[in-house]
Amino acid sequence: MERIIMLILKKFYRVPFWHRKLCKYDSSAYTESEKYNIVRDIVKSINKSANVDIHCEGLENIPEENGFVMFPNHQGLFDALVMIDTCDKPITFVIKKEIDKVRPLRRILSVLDVKMIDREDIKQSMKLIINVIQEVRSGRNYVIFAEGTRSRDKNNLLPFKGGSFKSAVKAKAPIVPVAIMDSYKVFDNHSIKRVTVSISYLPPITYEEYKDMKTVDIAKEVKKRIENKIKESC
Hints:
Blueprint: H1 2-11, H2 15-25, H3 32-49, E1 52-57, E2 69-72, H4 78-86, E3 92-96, H5 106-111, E4 115-117, H6 122-137, E5 142-144, H7 166-171, E6 175-181, H8 184-187, E7 195-201, H9 207-210, H10 215-233
Parallel strand pairs: 1-7, 2-5, 2-6, 3-4, 3-5
Antiparallel strand pairs: 6-7
Helix pairs in contact: 2-3, 3-4
């Protein structure tokens, strides 16, 4: 909370400008890349003022061609910010619908065309999955948090849900495991001291590699690769 208050104080004067900018770009008149770059500029400015150093590796593992799905571990709100900051290819997210209640984020979510899933509404969930499959096939890149919710145990992971991988499997898309380390420190620690967050984009798993695997086994494999990277880095 302390860091959020610090950001509000530092960036309050920029909010009207950012709001006008986001309203302008929240239109079909702009390409996905143009929209993403506007949001990315804002995110980079926020991250810079948050006393956060970002260590990034593995950018060469992000597929050259669009139409992939990234599966990071989930520690909190800063996960999305560090991914947008470091990934220069347009990405968007599948998130739980409750995030839409955070009013300051609504315009950004709209500009990025983020998909919000209602896990209690099976019909809505299935419709959303079908929509994501179609969009990945057409070249959109998605981020899905396979734990389903944030881990509250520092750099330790919750089990990855096999169902989270259905969109990637049905779209026959590359799966990119992403290891995020120490992002929980940004907003969970009651401090504004400078912290370092690390993110590693791991080698993608191609459809040819996972096509004969069940989604639960894909989930275990992706989780294992992320855990191994975190252990190696800590």
